[in-house]
């Protein structure tokens, strides 16, 4: 991933130094396991632990001849050792090291993403609570529907991120896994016990069955969850972008002193943060598709997944980390324009109460069809003339035969729509006073 969209914490995990550090960590853990069964002498283990090291330039030099990065790595490490070098990579195949080490780096990335999710979860809970009773117009198909609250928007996202946190926890359990099972996964030159010990030392679980590689459905599931997380961020960003439109102006991203919105138009305040995370979320979803295609490999293994994963795993984890942090900043600097929210509530001149009028007539004994067909033409007149819905209802002779003026006026009460809001919050695990 390019530096622009990579936070330093994640960059450290996916750089080449960290790659070879993780490879060496796996190699030494295997030597320790062999020592545990009496294969590797204590003195050889001590020398390997003390002296085993590598130089990236030397790895590159060797790889220019071998055209095999793991062989180049093991030979570079061996050059730092004496006769004890024979225990480096003993009984292993390349992907024993590569896949297990990759899982270690994914685990490190997961710790960062888990913390990001918790921070955004806390922000959404705070905003849901703060704006619980701030009434706004709800929109379906982009058209004014009925009143809702700003808090309920944030509460829905809070509930969604809770689900994504649970999905992420499950995906972590599956993806933070190692395999030390040899060339085709049969443990011909190593033992299942060695694999179990190595993975225990590394703090990951061992895969119950593998071939030369870990099963790639694990990675497909993991990328799927990352794509779901990114998609939630885009969902939130799209709502903010709509509500920042000049014609709506109900909320907007913070605009820092000295910030510029356009190179041509000095008046512009664009939702650049929301647009940014929307675009990056699409990239993560595309990488999910690659992870699914990586499942389809030949026999016990081919290498077609390897090059793709060198791109998609650093990219997807880095992007999810980036968009979670950027959305958290957007929310913490979000401007809520209550005056515009109130103005927009009145934009359709009371039409947002049309269902209540219809239900009131049904309660008085009308059929649903009769009530609907009576209210709809009156509503259409509001669209065409701009008169207030309540005024037209008060003048309608058929309505007046059933509803008194006081009953009509009582319908136009925004607070009516908040009567069950507290119950919704309690369902989402937030107790409100």
From TrEMBL:
InterPro entries: AdenyloSucc_lyase_C (IPR019468), Fumarase/histidase_N (IPR024083), Fumarate_lyase_CS (IPR020557), Fumarate_lyase_fam (IPR000362), Fumarate_lyase_N (IPR022761), L-Aspartase-like (IPR008948), Pur_lyase (IPR004769). The keyword Lyase applies. GO terms for molecular function: (S)-2-(5-amino-1-(5-phospho-D-ribosyl)imidazole-4-carboxamido) succinate lyase (fumarate-forming) activity; N6-(1,2-dicarboxyethyl)AMP AMP-lyase (fumarate-forming) activity. Pathway: Purine metabolism; IMP biosynthesis via de novo pathway; 5-amino-1-(5-phospho-D-ribosyl)imidazole-4-carboxamide from 5-amino-1-(5-phospho-D-ribosyl)imidazole-4-carboxylate: step 2/2; Purine metabolism; AMP biosynthesis via de novo pathway; AMP from IMP: step 2/2. One of its GO terms (cellular component) is cytosol. PANTHER family: ADENYLOSUCCINATE LYASE. This is Adenylosuccinate lyase.
